[in-house]
# Entry
Amino acid sequence: MVASSFLRKCLTTLAGLLLLSFGSLAASQIEDQTEQFFRSGHTNNWAVLVCTSRFWFNYRHVANTLSVYRSVKRLGIPDSHIVLMLADDMACNPRNPKPATVFSHKNMELNVYGDDVEVDYRSYEVTVENFLRVLTGRIPPSTPRSKRLLSDDRSNILIYMTGHGGNGFLKFQDSEEITNIELADAFEQMWQKRRYNELLFIIDTCQGASMYERFYSPNIMALASSQVGEDSLSHQPDPAIGVHLMDRYTFYVLEFLEEINPASQTNMNDLFQVCPKSLCVSTPGHRTDLFQRDPKNVLITDFFGSVRKVEITTETIRLQPDLGNMESRYKKEWMDEELMEPLKYAEQLPVAQIIHQDWSGHHRIFGIPGASKHFSVIMIPSNTLTFSEQSPLSWRARPQVEDHCR
Amino acid sequence: MAAALPLVLFVLLLLGPVGRGHAEPPRDSLREELVITPLPSGDVAATFQFRTRWDSELQREEGLSVLLKADRLFHTSYHSQAVHIRPVCRNARCTSVSWELRQTLSVVFDAFVTGQGKKDWSLFRMFSRTLTEPCPLASESRVYVDITGYNQDNETLEVTPPPTTTYQDVILGARKTYAVYDLLDTAVINNSRNLNLQLKWKSPPESEAPPVPFLHAQRYVSGYGLQNGKLNTLLYNTHPHRAFPVLLLDTVPWHLRLYVHTLTITSKGKDNKPSYVHYQPAQDRLQPHLLEMLIQLPANSATKVSIQFERALLKWTEYTPDPNHGFYVSPSVISALVPSTVAAKPVDWEESPLFKSLYPVSDSSSYFVRLYTEPLLVNLPTPDFSMPYNVICLTCTVVAVCYGSFYNLLTRTFHIEEPSTGGLAKRLANLIRRARGVPPL
# Structure
């Protein structure tokens, strides 16, 4: 009996030990999985897409930027998190045989302009100063929200630039350049202001690799379409439109991105292989020494998509307790809108008086027999009012007859 | 254009209160309207109007907005957009206001493009889609088709589906008839939820010239060179016997320096003195010129208002990246009370269609119209921006060639250098040569 009870005890303790070990194994597996879930460390995604070229023959740069915009939107980044800068309007250019469209494939297969494109900086607003202000956040207070890069220290930012470039510079709109040193300093300012978690910089210009040579801030990964001394070439012209539609590197990047969906596990190493020399004629380059994670662990959707992550916290957060107060405050503000005195018409130019005075005072050359002498003052319908500062009718100054400038 | 197809589609979406006798409009109301007008040349003019009285902005996704697709709308000969914002009284005493936003889009479809040369048109052919349902937020949503002159019988044209009601009114001084389609009426949008308005011509319409409006205007820049120019505005009064005054407002940017002493107004070859002139000179880089005048246009005449200007040279950083494109001069605004041929009675603005209030009428003899002339593109004297680069290249070349060679001549000294005696191999070779009797190296 003693032996059997002892045996039973041994068995139970053994079973208990085995269960414990299995449990801990399972728990550690779950921990590993949750660890994987949080491995990228970012909670939101932003994109800054810049086309720096003006004029009709640079159609391909606008098409490049719009195709990246389209992919990024399709993979989930909303317009509020995309800053799109296009230096010229190709869709409504008078030389565009198909207005309101920008094509990326010949025979007009794919219209990357779409129905819902939102351009934040357009035409003359795309300057080096505005670009650097967007990146560093030093923006005048009157800038609308859609023109700001409101990133924080947990944001992954994708920066895509295209245009004409050279060894160490990128040309903006035929009148100014940004150098690789300025760009590196801007990224360092962003790092010191904690404006990004990780940054992916892609550039499609001639000698693009020179633009990322000078980066020195951590957590930046850079890709370029050509090395120093090489030109990036354009892909294919379209005979109907008459210009080259896309650049080669971005064309193949677009094809690569078309196969990505928000759940795909493709990593950055695949993106590095995208355009080999046989297709691109130039040698694409990349730089990962400033990046802390291994590129094979970095998902494409970490930068191109907007996969939201949830952070679990064990602290208690107290929300605004008293909603009743807020309502009464709102009503009070509403009531204050009641004006003290009713609004009335602004002063109108007395056309009738002027005409009449003119006619009685001067001997007019044209006697118009049938003309009526009763001209009424220009009136607005009776139940509307005009404020004196806003209605064009009240721009008229008072009729100062003595101020005639003749 | 080929095949004149007068097609006026007025689509008016009016959202109004249910009770007709309601005096005060509800605070939140959206009215949508589409007015389609056929032009005698065969083109079709369509005007969309959306009027909202909001305290906050709302999105429209159904109703007439489905017709607003960019790829069709930009295949037009002409389009124009307008946004009007104004405060309106919320109550009779007008102690509180709400804001009214009115958005207008006018397009003219080329009949040749839309109808392949035929004068028939349909909503689907013009916009590549049809109306499916009214906007759920709209209190009024209507389409008006201008069938003036053809409404008595079905012999000249046929509009399908047949309109339930017609609307007659005096618009722009002429009596017009419209076929009305109310999208909120369930009989119009039937079970198929598909309203494709079509117009077919039974007998070809007589081609007539479009009726010339009583007031129209044109503006252009004349002169040559990049120093001076002349800004001309032509105002046409085509009324046969009535003269009326117009108010002409010009806002000219500061870099066109106007000479106001050269302002001349001529009608029928004779000088026409304006009844009132107001001029506010420009300040460089601060404000533009403001020139406003009240001109009496004689009947059946063309009045030319011209003023000379000089073009200013801007600072080199103020030029745009494409300065040879030119700089824009905003259009002149012409406001007038144009006498109408038909007496119109003033109506309640809330009940009448939106397009009627584009040309308000306060008494029966005239209607108010505000015209905008075309904007102008003016070239300013543009410096050659490649000159700094050229100068640097040329100067450096000249300095290098001239001064450099002169410097070399002055500072270079020559000294004789002894040739080296040569190494061991040379001495051996010389030995062998001496033995052979050949002169040494």
